[in-house]
Amino acid sequence: MITIKSFTFGHFQENTYILSDETNECIIIDPGCYDANERAELSNYLDANDKKPIRLINTHCHLDHMFGNGFIARRYNLLPEFNKHDKIVFDSFLTVSAMYNLEVEASPEPTNYLNEGDKITFGKSSLEIVFTPGHSPGSICFYNREQKFIIGGDVLFYGSIGRTDLPGGHHQMLLDSIKTKLFPLGDDYKVYSGHGPTTTIGFEKNNNPFLV
Q1: Using CB atoms within 10 A of its CB, is residue 113 exposed (0-12), middle (13-18) or buried (19+)?
Q2: In this structure, what DSSP letter does residue 60 have?
Q3: pTM of the entire structure?
Q4: pLDDT in tens, 8-53
Q5: Where are the domains of the chain?
Q6: What is the DSSP-derived secondary structure letter of residue 163?
Q7: Does pLDDT of 111 surpass 90?
Q8: Domain 3-207 grouped into CATH 3.60.15.10
Q9: Rounded-to-10 torsion of CA 153, 154, 155, 160
Q10: Cα dihedral 5, 86, 14, 209 sign
Q11: CA 154 to chain centre
């Protein structure tokens, strides 16, 4: 059974997720840990619970989801994985961070690109990948059929959707991604978003002002 541990980091209030199972192998998704205290919080959790990180995953490559990539890569000898269509966003990380007057550690280059239909495996568990562009050109979500949850990045939020005014964003494409890729998974799927609280597909289908 997959256990989901979440952290909320930084001024952007970004949600970082660690997914593990009974083998204690785990994956780190969207490490937004910016400063030393946040990085210690994440690594202390891993150490105290004997977790063994085996993959570093980005749902997309906006800066707030990548702040900890360099740290995770150094500490756990992992290289990031994301969808190839977000490489242009990835490549702008240092430039965009400088625009916010943020000092950041560069992320290493990806070791692998993730595509719809691929599976993310760790321990005895796996996640399926669905391609959900619109917030960024290469946004992807991960879902598990047995436990009925989605790690959604910045695609779908409680009562809202991801912004589409950043380079590579496309409003209609995002709406189409949500309605054609996430909604069909089922109303009872729980959504772990990149910002804010969890929600469900059913709640957003019936209440989200962008989608009803």
Answers
A1: middle
A2: S
A3: 0.97
A4: 999 999 999 999 999 999 999 999 999 999 999 999 999 999 999 9
A5: 3-207
A6: -
A7: no
A8: yes
A9: 130
A10: negative
A11: 8
Instruction: Look up residue 174 and give its amino acid.
Output: L
Q: Please give the biggest Cα pair distance in the chain.
A: 44
What's the chain's Rg over C-alpha atoms? 16
Residue of 52, 137, 156, 36 whose CA lies nearest to 88: 137
Rounded to whole angstroms, what are the CA distances from 126 to 59, 148, 149, 150?
16, 12, 12, 12
Distance, CA of 42 to chain centre: 15
pLDDT in tens, 155-172: 999 999 999 999 999 999
In DSSP terms, 122 is beta-bridged to: 125
Place of tokens 């994301």: 82
Q: Could you tell me which of 91, 191, 83 has the C-alpha nearest to residue 139?
A: 83
Tokens of 28: 């780190």
- Identify residue 26 by its one-letter amino acid code: C
- Residue 135 DSSP one-character state: S
* Rounded-to-integer distance, Cα 171 and Cα 155, Å: 11
Q: Is the pLDDT score of 93 beyond 90?
A: yes
Residue 204 to residue 67: CA distance in whole angstroms: 29
Residue pLDDT, tens place only, 183-202: 999 999 999 999 999 999 99
Q: Residue 2 and residue 65: Cα distance in Å, rounded?
A: 22
